[in-house]
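Why do we care about 3D structure at all? Because function follows from shape, and shape follows, mostly, from sequence. That is the central idea of this module. The next example makes it concrete: a single protein chain, its amino acid sequence, and then its structure expressed as tokens.
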Amino acid sequence: MNRTGPFDPRKEAHLLSAYVDGELSADQAERIEKHLAENEDSRREVERLRRFNKVTGALRLKEAPPEEWEGFWASFRNQSERRFGWVLVTIGVTVVGLWFLYNLLVSLISTDALPLYVKGGIFAAAAGVLVLLISVVRERIHKRSKTRYKDVIR
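And the structure:
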């Protein structure tokens, strides 16, 4: 960033906002003011930013009524209970499913009625399903932990 030379509005446009907010040092502010004296587009941008600050500065958040807070907490409890219930169901189904799959594979492998290549195919299919399941779960966990907008309601 060229801080000592002439102001470059393409590379340093963010400094106009900092100037309007009073966040610049005296040297930087003087540099911006010199540029504004020479550039009509930047003066218009500074005026637009000042109007924007004035409008947004006048905004106030409305306090939610007590009934809304009661509904929020009731909903929060319901969601927490349901989420916990789904976690328990998922754990139970996973444990029972893995037990069933293990016993099925053991019985298929120990039988002499199936040729070796069929046993290998069954084992490969079961291993593939397990790898895909682990991959999907890992991806979901990774995406959930990295998204910034998971709690945004549209």
